[in-house]
Amino acid sequence: MQAPRIVQSDTSLDLFSSGRAMKKLEVIAKEPHPVGSQAHHEVRDYLILELEGLGLKPEIQKAVVESSLTGEIENIITRMPGTANSKAVMIAAHYDSETNTPGAADDGAGIAAMLETIRALKAAGPLKNDVIFLMTDGEETGLYGAKAFMEDHAWAHDVGIVLNFEARGNKGPSFMFETSDQNGWLIKEFIKAAPDPVAYSIIYNLYKLMPNDTDLTVFREEGLSGLNFAFGMGLNAYHQPIDTPENLDMASLQHHGEYMLSLSKHFGQLDLKQVKQEDRIYFNLFGSHMVSYPQSWGMWLMIAGALFFIATVVHGISRRRVTVKGMTGGFFITLISLIVVFGLFTLIWAVWRSTLSNEQLKVMLLDPKVSILVLLGYIVVTVAIIGLLVRWISKKIRMENMWAGLLLLWTLLSIFMALYLPGGSYLTLWPLLSSLIGLNFSIRMRSDERKWGSVFFAMPGLLLFAPICYLIYVLMTLQLAAALLSVVALGFTLIYPVFCARSSHQHSITK
Ligand SMILES: [Zn+2]
Fold first, then answer.
1. If you average pLDDT over every residue of the chain, what do you get?
2. Same domain, residue pair 267 and 300
3. Interval between CA 275 and ligand 1 midpoint (Å)
């Protein structure tokens, strides 16, 4: 989960160079430039000059906003004509900043990347489709620029897809974290075109449940299809005076620009008249290698998983390795261990909050160097506690009963996810299927020595859970430690059979 390597300014002209974009950003994010301020007017004039210098004819869309905070806004809009336009690709970012921050990452990086992308596109020659570049204003005070564009600008009807660029921190990879509805086709093309894609459908599902908004909310609600990108590490810089060009991770800028250039080129050559298709489930498996399949498969796979679970239990009972009573015990031990973890970290958070000062809390939560150590400590504590707990209460439980019991929980979770959080169904389903295979082997071999096999079959679960846990940590901070560590612990439940003590008279015990 890394941003790509930065590209220096002396590279070939058809490539995106964060080195070149950074030079523009140093001008844009020199000082805070909230809507209506003198600095804002200077940034506006600079962008107009830059766009004209690139051979484009930018126009300013003015709109009066009924809000004391905003007043008048000025979108900067320009269009690069294609040779055989179907519908336009629109690239969007906002050029206003919050009042107390130069806004280098939010959203100067998006704007600077746009200038560098236009330059590279010009160098590469025309595309089939038109490309519209929309630099919105008044995003920070209420998405006003995006609203004005959608309501009043004629070009809003020409847009086939929109790619929006944002930031919620100043470091790390740029995630494709939000899509419009019916994203199937978009996702397939996105995976084909982006050189270093980072995207998880569970994040999109979770984002939908949160109150956060960007310009894409407006575009989406007005019926446009599109993708939204943001980097979110270094949350301590978000909307703070330290969000300066010097503090910005150039790799994040490079990642933004890489998406912007590769996707404009890709979508610039496709027919964009019909871009809606059934939602897909998608996730990074190894590095930038992504997997995706239609969301409807999630439901069928879940049914297959549930039937496989039942078959496994029947197999276990017929070979006298699993009992209903023992499995129920395993199920409750798993459940209790998760509740213990949740309770423990709720308590720890309460203690931190009552003993640390606000400043100390901020450092613990937001300084990445400190919080990552706290997180690692938390994980060690979690594994130690659940390990000891399971070992202690599972003395009289046969390993296969423990295994079947915990997989009952995973089966129930898979059903829940497929129904209510389909974008996250892959997270429980593939680990369930893999561990069920392992359990069937174990039942067949009738050997208590083979409990380490559970670790092997837990690999898909650990592989899929690790990035999501890391993302929850990055995006939600350790304020949500109780929920986060419960998710971590859930991943580790797959290896509970390892913690089962081997009882010498196990065969006589059916519990
Ligand atoms: Zn922003």
1. 92
2. no
3. 26
- For 207-260, what is each residue's pLDDT tens digit? 888 888 899 999 999 999 999 999 998 888 899 999 999 999 999 999 999 999
Going by pLDDT thresholds of 50, 70 and 90, the confidence category of residue 52 is very high
Predicted local distance difference test score (pLDDT) of residue 505: 43
Q: Which residues pair with 75 in a beta bridge?
A: 61
Q: What is the pLDDT of residue 503?
A: 52
Distance in Å, CA 337 to ligand 1 centroid:
40
Q: Which residues pair with 294 in a beta bridge?
A: 280
CA atoms of 42 and 63, how far apart (whole Å):
18
366, 395: one domain:
yes
Q: How many Å lie between the centroid of ligand 1 and the Cα of residue 322? A: 55
Cα 427 to ligand 1 centroid, rounded to whole Å = 30
Q: Which residues contact 211 (CB under 8 A, 6 or more apart)?
A: none
Residue 421 has pLDDT above 70, yes or no: yes
* Coil vs helix vs strand at 413: helix
Q: How many Å from the N-terminal Cα to the C-terminal Cα in the chain?
A: 44
Query: If you average pLDDT over residues 301-311, what whole number do you get?
Result: 97
Q: Is residue 12 part of a domain?
A: no
Cα of 96 to ligand 1 centre, how many Å?
A: 8
- In Å, how far are 205, 305, 445, 469 from 364, measured between CA atoms? 28, 41, 48, 18
Cα-to-centroid distance, 234 and ligand 1 (Å): 15
pLDDT 10s digits, 438-469: 999 999 986 666 778 889 999 999 999 999 99
CA of 55 to the centre of ligand 1 (A): 27
**DSSP state string for 474-506:** HHH-GGGHHHHHHHHHHHHHTTHHHHSPPPTTG
**For residue 138, how far is its CA from the centre of ligand 1 (angstroms)?**
10
Q: Position of tokens 């599972």?
A: 394
Residues 251 and 331 in one domain: no
> The CATH number of the domain where 140 resides is what?
3.40.630.10
Between the CA of 215 and the centroid of ligand 1 the distance, in Å, is 8
Which positions ≥6 away from 370 have C-beta within 8 Å? 363, 364
pLDDT category of residue 398 using cuts at 50, 70 and 90: confident
3-state secondary structure of 218: helix
Among candidate residues 228, 244, 277, the one where a domain is terminated: 277
> Tokens in use for 402?
């423990």
The total of other beta-carbon atoms located within 10 Å of residue 14's CB is 14
Q: Are residues 80 and 162 in the same domain?
A: yes
Task: Specify the pLDDT at position 507.
Answer: 46
